[in-house]
Amino acid sequence: MKRANEQAVEGFFVLSAYFSALLTVALFGFMLVLGLPLFAEGRIFSIMAQPWAPHLGQFGIQPMIVGTLAISLLSMLFAFPLSLGCAVLISVVSKGKVSWLLRKTVEMMTGIPTVIYGFVGIFLLVPLVREFFAAGSGMCVLSASLMLTLLVSPTMILFFCESFARVPDSYGKAALAVGGTEVQKFLHVTLPNSWPGVVIGFTLALGRALGDTLIALMIAGNAVQTPGSLLDSARTLTSHIALVFAADYESPEFKAIFACGIFLYLFTTFLMMAVRLLGVGRERWAR
Amino acid sequence: MGAVRRLQEVGVPFFSWLCGVLLLGSVIAVIGYLFVHGWRSIGLSLIFGTTPPLDALLMKRHVFNGLFPAVAGTLSLIVLSVCWAIPIGMASGIYLAEYAGPGTKAFLNLFFDILAGLPSIVVGLFGFSATVFLNRLFPGSIHPCLLISSIALAFLVLPYIIRTTQMALEGLPLSARMTALSLGASKLQNIVHVLLPQSLSGIVSGVILAIGRCAEDTAVIMLTGVVASAGVPRSLFSHYEALPFYIFYISSQYTDREELATGYGAAIILLCICLVLFLLAFVVKRQVSYHALYRA
Amino acid sequence: MENAVKIRTENLCFSYNGRTILRNASIDFAEREISAIVGPSGSGKSTLLMTLNRLWETIPRCTLRGRVEMKVDGRYYDIYEKSYPVTRLRRQVGMVFQIPNPLPMSIYKNVAFPLQLKGGLAKETVSARVEECLRKARLWDEVHYRLHSTALDLSGGQQQRLCIARALILRPEVLLLDEPTSALDHATARAIEELLLELKQSCTILLVSHYLDQVTRIADTIIELHNGTLVRRGGRT
Questions:
Q1: Which ipTM score applies to this complex?
Q2: Which residues on chain B are in Cβ contact (under 8 Å) with C61?
């Protein structure tokens, strides 16, 4: 009797685990099935490459792919050096209470809701950008990437700090023992020995930047065009899904958003695979 | 060599402090801006409008010009999603930590890593397309609603709960694992009576972070049933309001200063909820390390 | 008169992570005696204990070959036989570790825990058994007035006696002790030795010990291991 109960509970454990794994596949399957007409007509490649012009019967997502890449890569361009600097500040330059306080602040930043960044972005950053460059509405690639920088930096900083901490202490002691300074120890021992962690942190943060919806949706302007400059308005894949989903279920517009979903799914999966190949300890992803 | 070295010795700390000041400055600017412009709207009337609070809480009267429906929506969303996610997430975590062999573990973890990395809008799209699909099978029965949103959100936070459960269990020392077994406990008894209680604080802090994610997520609920104005959610199958969506909506659709002020108020409330949850997770985690120290 | 054999190991080979710990260890342990297992560290003493209640199975990357037989109700059983439930085995073979491992619960609950796991006993029986075992372990006088306060506040010696009481509540036929006194001060260690001498009336005791004086004081048989195999076996000298 007791044994039967135990087997039932253990069966529930197994089922849950496989259910959760299956869910990941089902998510992809659903998008594939609903976007299937695109594949059947062999239009998936033209969709990836075409512009979005519903009045001309073109439902390409190429502008959105470019917009997504532009905004996320630009934000990584800002965030990477910033995060590296902050991580060095926390792990090497500052000591004791200051270091602790900085780390806690960064950890706290991971808890700030995305929508808050978007909201403050609209009322604080966008006017600033508009005034400063005296061009356009201020809702542009630049504004979105700046806010996105704030969103993804904490993930990277914490990850970098942890990678630095994982470099065996004995290595560093050796550097100090031959008369090296803390800075030399960092540049010649810690950094070269933690580069896989740095790459992984970058990759995870890139995934987060690609997948974010709210910031781009609120302050990138959402114009369906391939952005030509940093001050141009742009639309990301994620915003596109959010903006178009309400249309008619059977319309090609609607099917095209599944192409966006599939693209995002594949891209983040690809990044996650890269992270695993780089030999990440799973405990290390933060948020 | 001397010049390069001196440059390093000065340059590296200078650059790092610059980055630190830049980051801290930006965060303080964001939070400060919110409070400077929004503190005036904080008060009971922000939440309850002109309705007496007690009447609103007892559902005697509708609240039309306050955040009460959005707060209620967010709370019900959190409670429901966590209810779905905890049993499945914990069970999966237990399976991974205690039952799965190394191969199975690596295989399943691959999926959970992918799930954890998915953009929330993709999870939202899944929730939405599942609804469309169900609606085709059973016409007219299923529409985007509180239930659908909470299930989609549960999918979003599932990997967090799986991972923290797994990590907390795997982090227990071998000696803690052996105690009950040496007294004749079965594997499951050991998990239920000893291992789970001892890793509870780790699991709880994971759950708190998951709650924070439910509270702040906008992308999933946008696609699965949240609306700008629906009143307090009446049932699982009704539309509902939520704080983050309200903030998003007001930021582009506000018509007058008063509405905007409410938006600021909502942003402050949401921020405070998330920060309090963060602090709570921090305190619970501290308890863990204290506990570990004590047992060593 | 020689006592009957309670536990017999035959050609026991054990390896952890590819490293051999026990090599062809064939050892008999006599009933209702204190058998002391001695030898340099790394000679496989603790591992030997864990093969007798199958506790090693919780550790990953371990393999075991050979047989372990135990006499239960006058018959010898292979304890690795599939039909022999491991939980039953562990109820018959109690174990006390080097570092006291009370669970984070009250004193009473700690001692009653094994019975709770087994289930099916009335409350009164349980509390009577708890008192009986705490008395046997000579802890009753120190804790009877605070049975429901946490066990983690007890001193090291008290915790270890609590663990012995907890192992005794299942009325085990064999008690495995892995250096039970090495974390304790001298006086407390002596008290526990006294306790073991009393317990051997009802129980077969296997004691891993580093202390030669302790071994000569209480052991009936001394079993010396070296490099995972039996090198010498002798009486008390």
A1: 0.88
A2: none
